[in-house]
């Protein structure tokens, strides 16, 4: 087996990171390989929804095509008829577009090549490089040997070309039952690479296909299909994940035997994210078992889940460029993804006020039935986003957490006798706490405001330590707010102790639904998928199931940025090392 190649140190060119794949491509262009042409493809198998790992591959393939004035095809790798569905094809197309990439007219299906692939297989038989084998799956496995033991040759290996052509034709016409025969490549049963021990090229499967219907009852295997699809499409650089490294000799073998256009396969390490699983099989299982509501549950690492949660395509693309490319598997801290998202939303998301757990306050010295429309900036990061008017009145809601009857040290929010600022409004002082005489529960606070502090600033220079968000009771809109956290409580779900599965590490607190929230009335006009910063609470996104009568928001991410802290620590360490 070939040793993995170490990537050269990451260099920068014109501010763009020159990773090991781009280095190869630039060298190919310089040498005029393929006439300097660059053509990539993104080849999903339509057996599930795309996830953030796929986003890495999409950004890479489409990004490279874009950067080097080339093309990127969208190719559905649909050779497995039993697991594929049209629903997945549609969702994949939607997701690639949503991420900001376009394959134009270059939408292909491996199944479109079934006739070509059959012809290539016949060609291999004619060259004496493939044979029909009557061993069943279990026998093939037994004959295959192991990493330490050579395999045994199939007793059917030396059939004549005529016999092979005849049997293969009859496999195609449906004469034989599933699993009774296969077409295999004749390579080397003693190869150190198990993939080269006479791999199966075609198997019999009497199952209709979502595109070819009942036309075929034999289906080509992935390795055979993939290299030849790449070749047919004139792909120059076939970029895939590391697990295909051991398949590269086979990729090359098929193309060499058939003497067809030969793309170069290049492998990179797949994206793994902390607290996250990415296998489509496991994700499907979460949906089937009802652990999550669907593929687009906002806790899912699927593109549709991230989108519903409020992630932006820009932040996902930024994340994919920041993680770079490597030849070695590692786990990326999910805090980095959230950091990219906060950076993006900080610039773009309008600020609004929303009270998650409302506590009623009455401003006793404010005239009844009076309403003042106060100026509130939409984004302090971006003046061009302007301002809006928010209503202030006698009865307001503040956050329950923002009041303590018996405040601990360093609690600067509201308490009996204390003065705080209401954002964009006035200073208020808590004069009285009204409780339910039976339960002792706080029902409301009676406060007074200082009319001389309009806008939230005191002219006499009087300072307050706390600034609270609030909404006007009469104007605010009721809302349901869904607070999300990681679906799993364990950072690394890849190497679990024996007997454990990812399901043993489900976070019981991954969803908290607050049904009785109040949001400012400007949100009446919000469109599904629009994102906001709820002051002091985090970023939130209007859910697609939201209606005018019932607003539903998903918490995208809280404000505290753990990645920024990690980054600062790393910088400090580096500067200490350098003695700066
Ligand atoms: P899964 O293991 O989730 O089922 P897959 O590799 O079988 O994923 P495909 O639909 O075959 O899924 O993937 C399409 C493309 O996306 C492939 O080129 C694959 O290498 C790439 N890809 C899949 N998962 C990741 C990942 N985690 N990081 C980077 N690229 C990925
Ligand atoms: Mg795959």
Rg over CA atoms, rounded to whole Å, is 31 Å
| Unreliable residue stretches | 1-9
CATH architecture call of the domain at 354-476: Beta Barrel
**How much of the sequence is in beta strands?**
15-25%
- Termini gap: 46 Å
Question: Largest beta sheet: what is the strand line-up?
Answer: 14-27-28-29-25-26-15
Top CATH class of the domain at 354-476: Mainly Beta
Shape: elongated
What's the name of the CATH homologous superfamily of the domain at 354-476? Ribosomal Protein L25, Chain P
Query: Which hetero compounds are present in the coordinates?
Result: adenosine-5'-triphosphate, magnesium ion
The tally of beta strands, per DSSP, is: 29
**Total of helices:** 13
What's the pLDDT, averaged over the residues? 95
State the helical fraction. 25-40%
The major pleated sheet works out as: 7 strands, mixed
Find the structural class using helix and strand composition. alpha/beta
Looking at the structure, the CATH topology of the domain at 354-476 is Ribosomal Protein L25, Chain P
How does this model look, in words?
- By secondary structure, the chain is of the alpha/beta class.
- It has a domain of 123 residues: Ribosomal Protein L25, Chain P (Beta Barrel).
- 27% of the residues lie in helices and 23% in strands.
- The protein is built from 13 helices and 29 strands.
- The strands form eight sheets. It has a seven-stranded mixed beta sheet with strand order 14-27-28-29-25-26-15, covered by helices on one side. The protein has a seven-stranded mixed beta sheet with strand order 23-20-21-22-16-19-24, with no helix packed on it. A four-stranded antiparallel beta sheet has the order 6-7-8-9.
- It binds adenosine-5'-triphosphate and magnesium ion.
């Amino acid at each position: 087996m070939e040793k993995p190649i170490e990537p050269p140190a990451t260099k920068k060119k014109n501010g763009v990171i020159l990773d090991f794949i781009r280095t190869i491509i630039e060298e190919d262009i310089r040498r005029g390989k393929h006439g300097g042409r660059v053509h990539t493809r993104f080849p999903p198998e339509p057996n599930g929804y795309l996830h953030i790992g796929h986003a890495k591959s999409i950004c890479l393939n489409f990004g490279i095509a874009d950067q080097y004035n080339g093309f990127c095809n969208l190719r559905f790798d649909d050779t497995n008829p039993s697991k594929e569905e049209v629903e997945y094809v549609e969702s994949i197309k939607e997701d690639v577009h949503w991420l900001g990439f376009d394959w134009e007219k270059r939408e292909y299906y491996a199944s479109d090549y079934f006739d070509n692939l059959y012809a290539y297989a016949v060609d291999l038989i004619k060259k004496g490089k493939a044979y029909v084998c009557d061993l069943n799956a279990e026998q093939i496995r037994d004959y295959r040997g192991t990493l330490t033991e050579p395999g045994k040759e199939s007793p059917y290996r030396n059939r004549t070309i005529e016999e092979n052509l005849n049997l293969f034709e009859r496999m195609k016409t449906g004469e034989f039952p599933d699993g009774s025969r296969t077409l295999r490549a004749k390579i080397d049963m003693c190869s150190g690479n198990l993939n080269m021990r006479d791999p199966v090229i075609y198997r019999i499967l009497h199952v209709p296909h979502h595109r070819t219907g009942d036309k075929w009852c034999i289906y080509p295997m992935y390795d055979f299909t993939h290299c030849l699809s790449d070749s047919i499409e004139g792909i120059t650089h076939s970029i895939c994940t590391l697990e295909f490294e051991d398949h590269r000799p086979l990729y090359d073998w098929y193309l060499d035997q058939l003497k067809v256009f030969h793309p170069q396969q290049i492998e990179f390490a797949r994206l793994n994210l902390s607290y996250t699983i990415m296998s489509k099989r496991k994700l499907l299982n979460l949906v089937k078992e009802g652990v999550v509501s669907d593929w687009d549950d906002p806790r899912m690492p699927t593109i549709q889940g991230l989108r519903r949660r409020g992630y932006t395509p820009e932040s996902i693309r930024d994340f994919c460029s920041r993680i770079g490319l490597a030849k070695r598997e590692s786990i990326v801290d999910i805090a980095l993804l959230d950091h990219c998202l906060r950076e993006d939303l900080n610039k773009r998301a309008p600020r609004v006020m929303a009270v998650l757990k409302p506590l009623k306050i009455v401003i006793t010295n404010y005239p009844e039935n009076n309403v003042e429309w106060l100026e509130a900036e939409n984004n302090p990061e971006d003046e061009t986003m302007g301002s809006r008017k928010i209503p202030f009145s006698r009865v307001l809601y503040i956050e329950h957490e923002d009041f303590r009857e018996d405040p601990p040290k360093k609690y600067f929010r509201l308490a009996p006798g204390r003065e705080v600022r209401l954002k964009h409004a006035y200073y208020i002082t808590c004069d009285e706490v009204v409780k339910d005489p039976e339960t002792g529960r706080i029902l409301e606070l009676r406060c007074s405001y200082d009319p001389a502090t309009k806008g939230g600033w005191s002219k006499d220079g009087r300072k307050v330590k706390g600034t609270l968000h609030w909404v006007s009771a009469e104007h605010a809109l009721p809302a349901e707010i869904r607070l999300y956290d990681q679906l799993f409580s364990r950072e690394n779900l890849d190497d679990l102790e024996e007997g454990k599965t990812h399901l043993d590490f489900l976070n019981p607190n991954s969803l908290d639904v607050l049904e009785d929230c109040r949001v400012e009335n400007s949100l009446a006009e919000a469109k599904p998928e629009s994102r906001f910063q709820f002051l002091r609470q985090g970023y939130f996104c209007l859910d697609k199931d939201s209606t005018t009568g019932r607003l539903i928001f998903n918490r995208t991410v809280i404000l505290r940025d753990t990645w920024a802290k990690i980054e600062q620590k790393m910088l400090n360490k580096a500067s200490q090392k350098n003695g700066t």
